[in-house]
Amino acid sequence: MQEFVVQNFGPIVNADKASLNIDKVTVFCGKQGAGKSSITKLISVFFWLEKSLIRGDVSEKEAIAKGSFKDKFCSYHNIQNYFKKDTYLRFKGSKLVFEYENEELKVTDQKKVKNFARPQVMYIPSERNLMTAIEDADKIRNLPSSLSTLLSEYYRALKSAQRPIGLPIDGYKVSYDDSTKTAWLSDKNFKIRMTEAASGFQSMVPMLAVSRYLLNKIKSGKKGLQLGVASEMERSTILDKAAKILNDRTLSEEDRNSRITQLLSNSFNSRLVNIVEEPEQNLYPDSQRDVLFELLKINYEGAYNQLVFTTHSPYMLNYLSLAVKAGILKEKLQRKPNRGDLLAKLDPVVPRSSAVNPKGLNIYEITPEGEIRKLGDYDGIPSDGNFLNSALSQTNELFDALLDIEDEVGV
Q1: Which of 7, 154, 223, 258 stands the most exposed, by the fewest C-beta atoms within 10 Å?
Q2: Sign of the CA dihedral 310, 315, 320, 323?
């Protein structure tokens, strides 16, 4: 789990410097423009920077250079102009602690932490449907960096698929024709180009295809194929470092084994940090549920994977509550003698693979005033006392007001 404090950044005020826990599943909800994506973009930058420093892609001198964090690293997400004179940031990662104050970044190594599980950090922006709605999206100039990265991974996912990619909705599948550079959406009755598909599919497909592709890539690495999935430069660097360790006669065999293990841990992605903006985008409520459960399934297929997402859909929070209830029930049923039959009854409601352990869940609401509020829970189930459900209640109140007017005029 990581800890993050953000104050006076873009629309975020956070006057009390409330600390956010980035856990197995972390959710940010709030009105449009409240600052949800501001927070997730910063989280993405810190995850990436920690990984790059430990791996050696970025030196500490480069990271802490005046203006480097703001103008170089944060410009990837186009948030460099969100900084203020009194912006304060603190990110306690798995190995490093970052603190940004008085326009300077400090990096501290948590020396007591020896092992570091290197993450594959994927940021999936809300603009993703643009790349599936337009032909030859890769030829568009000046795409946002995060969208350009997603587009590259999307094409890799399509090209690497040995069979059509199944979607969690009504038997739909996605396939790719490399000869024509065309992605196709199909079911048993029809087949259309992805550029012709409904906007919900255009938003959903890159999100799920890339998430699954990256997870499978990590799994392949864990099975001993790491050098095969690394770039030529990475392979050369890893082999050189390994040779130096093995040839160092001042080290004991135990030390050599320990350093080789750490080298491999630092050199290969062993977990997925999946950061998604608005998974519900352009989707019907039932489809929102299916997409959420698929993202949760991918997240729980790796012990150290993490899912962070933003939402302003009350359905997403309600379906997440279902997944939490299923997680609590799943834990209880594990202790029953007839647990197999009982657990099987869960799947039609919430797949066991998508059940959420409430101990690893944090939901934060960003208020219109820029404050951050952690949603409470009742017996582990997320509270419904959030602005999304309040908006639904307001609709009922407005409808009641119309009924009162109708009664008054006798229509």
Answers
A1: 223
A2: negative
Between the alpha carbon of residue 65 and those of residues 73, 79, 106, 107, 297, the distances in Å are 11, 18, 10, 11, 40
352 vs 341: CA distance, rounded Å: 13
Helix, strand or coil, per DSSP, at residue 139: helix
Element (H, E) at 315: helix 314-333
Q: 3-state SS of 356-373?
A: CCHHHEEEEEECCCCCEE
For each of the domains in the chain, give its residue range(s) and CATH number, in order of start: 2-118+272-400 (3.40.50), 129-230 (no CATH)
pLDDT tens by residue, 37-85: 999 999 999 999 999 999 888 999 999 999 999 999 999 999 999 999 9
The torsion angles phi and psi of 124, rounded to 5 degrees, stand at -110, 100
User: What digits encode the pLDDT tens for the residues 291-303?
Assistant: 999 999 999 999 9
3-state secondary structure of 61: helix
The tokens describing 273, both together, are: 């940090």
Quick: pLDDT tens for 176-195. Answer: 999 999 999 999 889 999 99
The residue whose two tokens read 């608005």 is: 278
Report the distance separating Cα 67 and Cα 69, nearest Å. Answer: 6
pTM (predicted TM-score): 0.88
Instruction: Sort 19 into a burial class: Cβ within 10 Å, 0-12 / 13-18 / 19+.
Output: middle
